[in-house]
Amino acid sequence: MKHDNQEDIQLRNRLNDLCQLRLFRNTKKEFGEYIEYNLTTNNSIQRIKPFTARCLYRELEKQILQDTYNELDINETLETYKEASEFYIHEIKKININPETDVDLLHAYLRYVCINNLESPECNDKKLNKLLNAINKRPTVQLVPLLLIMLKILPTYKSKQGDVKDIDGDFIKLHHFFTEFARKEPSVQEMPVLEFMKYDFTRHKQKNRIMLIYMTYCAINNFCSLINSTDSYDLVIHINHNTQLPDIGEHYWYDTDHYNDTTTFWDFEQTATDNYFLYQYKFKLDLQEIHRKKFEITLFNQWNTLVLYAAKSSYMHILLKEKKQIQPDKQAWYKCEMDDTQSPLKIELCELMAGKAILDFQSLTRLTDEKMTEQINSWQEKFKMIDIKEDSQTEEDYEFRAAPFAITEECIFIKQEAKENEEKPDWYYRVPKEINEGLKKITINDFVGILTIQEKRYIGFSPISLFLDVTNDKAIKESKVELVERIFL
Q1: pLDDT at res. 338
Q2: Number of domains present in the structure of the chain
Q3: Whether residues 215 and 90 fall in one domain
Q4: C-alpha 45: how far from its chain's center?
Q5: Which of 65, 81, 98 is the last residue before a domain boundary?
Q6: Which has the closest alpha carbon to 157: 138, 179, 137, 142?
Q7: Cross-strand bridge partners of residue 411
Q8: Which band of pLDDT confidence, cut at 50, 70 and 90, is reported for residue 331?
Q9: Could you tell me if 307 and 299 are in contact, meaning their C-beta atoms sit under 8 angstroms apart?
Q10: 3-state DSSP assignment of residue 424
C-alpha cells in the first residue's frame, strides 16, 4: 500500500510538471479548466489527493498519446526533457548561445547529429567546438529537448516562466529554423516534411508545446532518413506500412470541374509495389487517336493525413540513366481527401508544395455511366495510342518484377530469370552489402526484383531506391556485383 502511495505522489509530481511547464495547455487557467480544478487561486496541483492526481495524469497520458497519433510517450518525454534541461544549465548555458545570431552554429549542431558517422568539424568557431565537446561527453542527452531549449522555444525544466505568450509565434520560429536548415541540405527537400508539419499544426484546435516537441521529433527523424542511406530504409518502410490501397482501379474517372468534357478521362492501375500508374486519356475523335500521359502515384498516411505523391513517368529515366535526384518539377505532393476511404466516388487534392502542377485536376469523380464506359472501351480498341512526352524528356515504359532472393550476413543473392542469360540460366547475382549501407537493412519481406527499361536491366531494391545495372558483364563489374552458380555463406 505504501508503494502505491509513493507512485501516486510521483505521478502527482509529473502532473504538476505538465502544468508548470505549460506543456498540455498554454496557461495555468486553461490547464485547471481541463482537469476541472481551480488553479487561479492559491490552490496548486500538490493539494490534489495523490490517487485523484494519479487518475488525472493517466487520462492526460492517454490524451497526449492520442493527440500525437500514438507516437509520444509523455513519461519518456518528461525524463528526456529533464535530463536535457539539467545538461543545458550546467554545461551549455555558459557557452552563451544566442538563437538569433548563432543560427549557423545550431544548424551545424543539427547537421552533426543527423548525419551518420560525421566527424566533428574542424573550425575556428570556439562556441561550436565547446558545444560539440560538451555533447560528446553526454551522448544520452536527447537532441530534441536540448535544441528546443537552446532555441528558447521551451523553458528549462524548473523554470518559473509562466504562461505561453505566443504558441503560434513559437511554431513560426521553429519552422523558420528548419526551413533555413533544409535550404543547406538538398536531400532534405526531396520530401515536403515542413509542409506536412505546417499543415498539421495549423489544423489543430489545441496548439501546445507537446505538439512542438512531437513535430520536432518527426521533422528530425525525417531529415535523418533523407540524409542517410541507412535511415532512408526506415522512412520507406514507414510509408509502406502506411500505404493505402483503396478500390480506385478498373474504373474511369473524370475531372469534376470539367464534367462537360466527354473526351478526357483518367484511369488508375495498381502495381506490384503497391503503388498506382495513373493514366490520362485524351480522345482525339477527328484523328482517331488517344493521347496518353502516365504518372506514378503513391497513397499513404503521414501525420494522420492522407497524402498522394505523384511523379512523372520520366522520373525513372532520370533516376537510372542520368543518375540524378528527381527534380521538383517532376514530382508533387498533395493532401488527398476521399468521400469513402475504401471505395471512393470522389477524390479531391490540395497541393502541399507550391510549384509547377503535375496533375492538372483538383478533383476526380468516378464515372458510373455504363454507356459512356462502353464508349471509352470502344475507342480504346479502335484508336491509335500515342504517349505524350513533355519537356523533351524521354518517358519510357519499364517493368519491375519481383525475383526470388536470399540474404546472408554479408551478401544478398538474387536469382536471375532464365531468359536473362541462356548460358547460365540458374545462376544468381551476388550483391555485397558493403556497397551500400541501406542493403544491411533489407529483409526477406521487402520488394527486390529485376527492373527492365528498354534494353537495360537493373537489380532493384525498392525500399532504398537502389538500382544496380546488370545489363552486361561490364555493367555487372562496375556495379560491384558478381554472377555465381549457387548461394553460399
Answers
A1: 97
A2: 4
A3: yes
A4: 39
A5: 65
A6: 142
A7: 432
A8: confident
A9: yes
A10: coil
CA-based radius of gyration for the chain: 27
Segment holding 79, helix H or strand E = helix 74-87
Phi and psi at residue 351, in whole multiples of 5°?
-65, 130
Domain hosting residue 51, numbered range: 1-65
Nearest to 272 by CA among 302, 296, 237: 296
Residue at a domain's end among 158, 193, 227: 227
Residue by residue, DSSP assigns 414-480 as EEPPGGG-SSSTT-EEEEEGGG-GGGGG--TTS-EEEEEETTEEEEEEGGGTEEEE-SSHHHHHHTT
**How many CA atoms are closer than 13 Å to the CA of 30, on its beta-carbon side?**
15
Q: What is the arrangement of strands in the sheet containing 411-415, beginning at the earlier edge strand?
A: 405-407, 411-415, 428-432, 482-484
Give the side-chain half-sphere CA count within 13 A for 313.
21
pLDDT at residue 1, as a whole number: 42
Helix, strand, or coil here: 407? strand
Q: Where are the beta strands (DSSP E) in 96-208?
A: none
Q: Is residue 387 classed as helix, strand or coil in its secondary structure?
A: strand
pLDDT at position 395 over 60: no
Query: Cα(first)–Cα(last) distance of the chain, in Å?
Result: 57
Same domain? For 271 and 367 the reply is yes
Q: Is 156 helix (H, G, I), strand (E, B) or coil?
A: coil
Does residue 166 register a pLDDT over 80?
A: yes
Residues 328/355, Cβ–Cβ less than 8 Å: yes
**CA-based torsion, 353, 359, 361, 362: positive or negative:** negative
Please spell the DSSP secondary structure of 247-289, one letter per residue: S-BSSEEEEGGGTT-SSEEEEEEE-TTS-EEEEEEEEETTTTE
Asked if residues 231 and 115 have their Cβ atoms less than 8 Å apart, the reply is: no
Cell 471509352, located at residue: 376
pLDDT higher than 70, residue 266: yes
CA distance 358 to 346: 19
What tens digit of pLDDT does each residue of 26-73 get?
A: 999 999 999 999 987 777 899 999 999 999 999 999 999 999 989 999
The average pLDDT across 472-477 equals: 93
Task: Decide if 210 contacts 154 (C-beta within 8 A).
Answer: no
Same domain for 357 and 270: yes
Q: Count, in order, helices (H) and strands (E) of the chain.
A: 14, 17
Q: Which residues, 6 or more positions from 305, have their beta carbon under 8 angstroms from its beta carbon?
A: 196, 199, 200, 335
Q: How many Å apart are CA 162 and CA 168, to the nearest integer?
A: 17
- Average pLDDT for residues 2-14, to the nearest whole number? 82
